Amino acid sequence: MASIAQGSRISAARLNWLVILIGLSVLLNYVDRGAIGIAAPLMKAELDLSATGFGTAVSAFFWVYAPLCLFVGWLCDRFCVYRMFAAGIALWAVATLLTGFVHGIAALIVLRLILGLGESIAFPGSSKIFAAEVPAARRGYANAMVAAALAFGPAVGTFSGGLILAELGWRPIFWIFGAVTLLWLVPWHYVAAPLRTQSVSVPVADPVPLATIMRVPAVWLMGVGHFCTNYGFYFLLTWLPLYLVKSRDFSITDMTILTTLGFAVQGVMALVVGHVSDKWVAGGADEARVRRRMMIAGQALAAVSIGAVFFADGFAQVGACLVLAGIASALTSTNLFAIGQMFAGPRAAGVWIGLQNAVGNAAGIIGPVLTGLMIDRLGGYGWAFALTALVPALGALWWWKVVPPIKQFES
């Protein structure tokens, strides 16, 4: 079977469009995933949710999303990832749209589960394509597109969702976001059309078995590092709007500006980090060393900036802390999947990133519920912020001392 990894059946222009559309899909992924956090200041009261109940609804997304990343990664190594992308996005778009009609926690949890099912394609699928197509000197650019989209998604979602929330209420947030996501399928249909045949599918002829990858210690160690990275990011994505409005008495407009600021900075800096890392690698720097050092710096900065948000006084200080948090997330998100792709190589990229992402997204299962319990049982956000700052601090040590030398594993 011929493969686009051979480079004979796909043009540079088409590959660029694929990278752009994959980046846009990740942006929409985080717009739709984070909509519940934007809606929270009004949704939580209308549906009569406790902090624990809200945290459970947020966590439900990850009950399906995290374990399915492993299975979807396995599928990406064996079947046409272009069709899988379209199916996954159609499913999560419909789940987002229908969330605007819920009237209780049971329906909300069911739709969050379906959302997680659809969104599980994003990172294993994109990493499969990047590992097969993108050379080392351009790996930072491709992953920076995803990392920037990962940040601009919450920025766009927060800004537009905040405006919708203030003018129309929380339900139209989900109706509008879901409808816009469905429109992504139109350009994807045309760009991926020549690639949806067996002769030019992404899978290679000899995929690495899942059992082989599961015996590689590095993938589990990467998963723990991924967990430490995700814990703080998901806290900011889902709890920050509610915290700023209900505990710090910011208006919905101020909350929208502050939250958008942090994610917008992350998006811009992700592109900068991707460009700089590619330039260093092209200039002869050791790629593994560059990316490891960026991960350590990003985790350390995340610990400091997230902890500082709790003690910040007023709009300007909170904004400054969120800018630093955005820079930290840019450093980690740009390099996290690139390092996984380096470990895996083209043959195993789908299943490796799927397993790594499954372990890493356990943070989304544990974190929201634990945060809700701490708020309800301990009477405030203090302990929740302390734990959320501690996890990336431990992550910095993990990337420095525990993650093994970064090189492609031997199957």
TrEMBL record:
Keyword Nucleotide-binding tagged: no
Full protein name: MFS transporter
PROSITE patterns: MFS
Entry's Gene Ontology molecular function annotations: transmembrane transporter activity
Entries under Gene3D superfamilies matching the protein: MFS general substrate transporter like domains (1.20.1250.20)
Residue intervals of the Major facilitator superfamily (MFS) profile domain: 18-407
One Pfam short name: MFS_1
Coiled coil: none
Compartments reported by the entry: Membrane
CDD domains, alphabetized: MFS_ExuT_GudP_like
Topology of this chain in the membrane: Multi-pass membrane protein
Organism: Novosphingobium ginsenosidimutans
Record keywords: Membrane, Transmembrane, Transmembrane helix
Spans traversing the lipid bilayer: 12-31, 51-73, 144-166, 172-191, 219-243, 255-273, 294-311, 317-339, 351-375, 381-400
Top-level taxon of the source organism: Bacteria
